[in-house]
Design brief:
The complex is a heterotrimer. Chain A is an alpha/beta fold. Chain A is built from 14 helices and 15 strands. Chain A is globular, with a radius of gyration of 21 Å. Chain C has a single domain, classed as Pyruvate-ferredoxin oxidoreductase, PFOR, domain III (Pyruvate-ferredoxin Oxidoreductase, domain 3). In chain C, 37% of the residues lie in helices and 24% in strands. The chains are: A alpha/beta, B alpha/beta, C alpha/beta.
Amino acid sequence: MSEEVKLMKGNEAIAHAAIRCGCDGYFGYPITPQSEVMETLMEVEPWKTTGMVVLQAESEVSSINMVYGGAATGKKVMTSSSSPGVSLMQEGISYLAGAELPALIVNVMRGGPGLGTIQPSQSDYFQTTKGGGHGDYRLIALAPASVQEMADFVGLAFDLAFKYRNPAIILADGVIGQMMEKVVLPDFKPRRTDEEVEKQCPWAATGRKMSRKNNIITSLELKPEVMEQNNLRFQAKYKQIEENEVRYEEILCDDAEYLLVAFGCSARICQKACEIARAEGIKLGLLRPITLWPFPTKAIAGYANKVKAMLSVELNAGQMVEDVRLAVNGKVPVEHYGRLGGIVFTPDEIVNAVKTKLM
Amino acid sequence: MALEDIIKPENLVYKKPDIMNDNPMHYCPGCSHGVVHKLVAEVIEEMGLVEDTIGVTPVGCAVFAYNYIDIDWEEAAHGRAPALATAIKRLRPNKLVFTYQGDGDLAAIGTAETIHACNRGESIAIIFINNGIYGMTGGQMAPTTIEGMKTATCPYGRDYKLNGYPLKITNQLKDLDGIRYVTRQSVQTAAAVRKAKKAIRKAFENCMDGKGGASVVEVVSTCSSGWKLSPEKANKWMEENMFPEYPLGDLIDKDANK
Amino acid sequence: MKEEIIIAGFGGQGVLSMGKILAYSGLMQGKEVTWMPAYGPEQRGGTANVTVILSDEKISSPILNSYDTAIILNQQSLDKFEKSVKPGGTLIYDPYGITTEPTRTDINIHKINAMDACIEMNAAKSFNMILLGGFLKIRPIVELENVLKGLKKTLPERHHHLIPMNEAALKKGMEIIK
């Protein structure tokens, strides 16, 4: 780790981390509240140093398809956007999953539906974890709760994407994107050479070497029997990811009688709620899913035997709560508390919700 | 003379390009795709770029081009081929990157990607098959369908009042600053095939000399199944009806006077 | 030590940048910091506010219900945030444009004529530095030396010649706060 501690916005951290982790290409389109990602990249001009390509596309449709093009050649490519833009990208994301290409998408969520608002929200949980685009596919979904995690998850997301040949998404929100915090940026990692890319990605469309069969990157297969086999292969991969890649954080859980489940900025606010509640003698803990898919089902199921009730705290009308309930399987009550459309709850509101909904 | 005496390398006067494989093509008899595929394969081979080419296939009849030419390919979502090609070329600047698209793919759903990739002056080649109809989905109206032409979705003939005018998209592309070469060709006669091949070669060479700029080769083509005509009649119908609307020749060649 | 601060006023008054300099000052002093703006079109003309937290410990929520200190620059913000100051906390305000004075008696209220002072100094852009100086006089949570280091970090190099003027403004604020 490089020593220098910097102060920056989450969006800026994404940009700097991308350059430092050897990203080959960023393709994006401006949208609030994440425009600082591309603005930072354009200001730093990484094409002059690492050779990273940065391009402003004509639409989110185009930027995700540029990602699809770049990923097919084995390159480390990414895009970022916010909710309405990510909706436009769903077709491309489905293609990435169907063609089994590694890529990174960053969604700095804002309130919807429709054009909605530009204020923070977490209402794209379903879109991210349950599909979004067409077909049976999954995205590896990481939910950062700090500017440091914004920086750290870029490299992690790329590693996971290449490990499993699957698109990964960083599901952030307007709070984490816009706030400034201390961050230690990852060390510089050089971009892979073309030879290294070809070695790591023998499947990539890099120009056909006569020593191998030509590589065709496609999600199309008109024979349903073959397409079923493809799907079964995807499902086996997803199962492996579910077994190996679940990540979560437990805060004040050891003696907790009541458990909050929250991700991203909500988890930060819940942490403060736990502090306030404990000062009042309420044993409140917090489980923070870091991977939204794969979801920490087993960990939450474990707490169903220990706590009296759980509260899923989300900036939406109740999305992750469904996964918490599936994990708990009726053993204890699971309630939801949320604010909608760009309104962010305060720690006090959450403590009150614990008192009124759980106790 | 026995057959074995004839089939000898020294007697070979014509062969298909090595990278054209033996898979039976799914194209209908009389379809222009097969000829254009062959031309693309020939030019790649003649330029010595088999190991350095990445092609992008569209959604439409040519979606399976990757089944017939043994180079590396990526299959795009409908209309998005120029966006894919943009990223591929920028990340692999030494490669020949081309898209192969039909009229619905390029001039309807992919209009934005087409115009912006050309306007950015991406060093890519776009092979544009214009047969005025959606072939793969069963003969519906295309943006390039001409007035009065009957399709499954304009069964009484295209009517400007109802459907608007045929989009002559290459006429627009030629005026973009990022464009280097736009030409309109056909492949219904041996002479036309030779000219089309030259045009494809020029477009591919433009991609590789580092000077930048996008090149577009429109091939006015037939769709005998969609047009419900025999291959021979389709060629004739094309000459009589499509060519007046889409006249052949170079629309712009910025290298011509240099 | 932990100080939870809201700075609120009109967009264009330097609310966000004042928060940024305070956050950088905290960073220079080795504190944990968060800077959370109410972002969006509000920045351009409407009310703008930013929550800044400086702490010795890791900071949980960047969004708060109540504050140790509120620095208030217009009437709307006073109406909105006076009630959010913790009992025993601090409210600092510039009376310029304030028509209804704060009324709470369980908090420490300080007035600072920063607008007048910056006009007097012929340094309109130092308005927010005068306020910051006043704040630091009342709540000396970071040393002046670290504020200057923070300034250096936030100002692009071509503006570093403005640092002495900003230092003078900080000191002015320390003098005039009541």
